[in-house]
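Q: Structure for this?
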Amino acid sequence: MKKSKLTLLIFMALCCALGLFAKKLVNPIANLMTDSLHIPGGISAGFSLMFLVIAAELVKHRHCGTTMGAVQGMLALITGRVGSMGALMPLGYLLPGVVIDGVYMLMKSFPKEERMVCANMAAAVTASLTANAIVFHLWGAVLCLYMAVSATSGFLFGLLGAAMVKRLQPIWKQM
Amino acid sequence: MKHRLLYGIAAVLALILAVSAYFHLNSRDSLAGDAILLQTEHTQFEICLSELTLQPIHGSRINGKGETIPVDGQGMTMKELLEQYQISEYQKINVISDDSYSAELSAQEAENACILQEETGVRMVVFGDNDSKRSVSDVRKIIVE
């Protein structure tokens, strides 16, 4: 049975909100890890982007990531959660969304797990690169470590996302 | 083997993570307690702010959420700090925190920027800034150029 547009939009909105606010849940543990490595972040982005990747996998709409990234950026602006990025904050949400769509376009024929992990990893690295270009201005070994931590978090949360999709798919098919 | 690509990515990531962590953690300056390294082109000093004569600083700063936070503590302006170490000629100042976050100040801004002693370490606040970009917590290094 084909899902109604409203069902898809509600699911996408739910994933947008989860992605935006669930970051707070992992921040305390993420900060512990980044403090010990002496880097300014890079872990919670992988978790927050996992919800966009889950939506992209289930909704299977060509511009799902970009749309959700744009909505998240607007929500962040409206609710004043702009952080140090200021008015450029929407870019930090939009670019990872565009990258998720790009990876999904390139990896259509790959298994679901690989596609989700690669999309989450690429999106997390993009989010970190954007934050670095706008706020942190890191370079050398610390930038390399920051990127490696982001990619690893994207990888691990990508696997978690794939496991969640496996559980969600039977329910999704019934809807 | 199923998911060969994932195993390959995991191996490459683990290698990059280990190598970059090794280089980053070994390239850090070893400082005692909450000491700050003040570095100029020719020399460097290890500063312990609590050992300097501090004055009461009052004002406000903007945090990451855009809220105005009152600043009330002991500290000194960046200009005064540099003068204590006979540094008077400089173009810019780079303030770096423990997590490698950095903020740049021009010579003119050294009068508006304050170094404050906090319970958790040393913070730099630039009074008059309308965002949190240059509010640096846990300051560990000041590079004067």
